[in-house]
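Handoff note, outgoing to incoming analyst
You'll be picking up this chain. Sequence as last confirmed:
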Amino acid sequence: MSFLGFGRPQPSSAEKIAAVENELKMVAEMHSRMIKVCTSKCVDKTYREGELAKGEAVCLDRCAAKFFEAHQKIFEQIQTETQNRGGGPAF
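Most recent structure output, in case you need it:
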């Protein structure tokens, strides 16, 4: 019986590596979706200037912050539901 696992078997090294790889894949996918959504919402399609306009930069900052906040809340809810069902921590 493991003290930290509360009686559950500890994941093997291969399982830990797979969990980290899945998490990295999830973060990369989230980043790609955020770039696509926020760019289409905030950046002028005519590309009149080489640099972002102040309004575009502010829009991108806010869009990214809201995107991460929403994903954090979803992740926390999934973790809570997984733990309530008796599963281990969600990766």
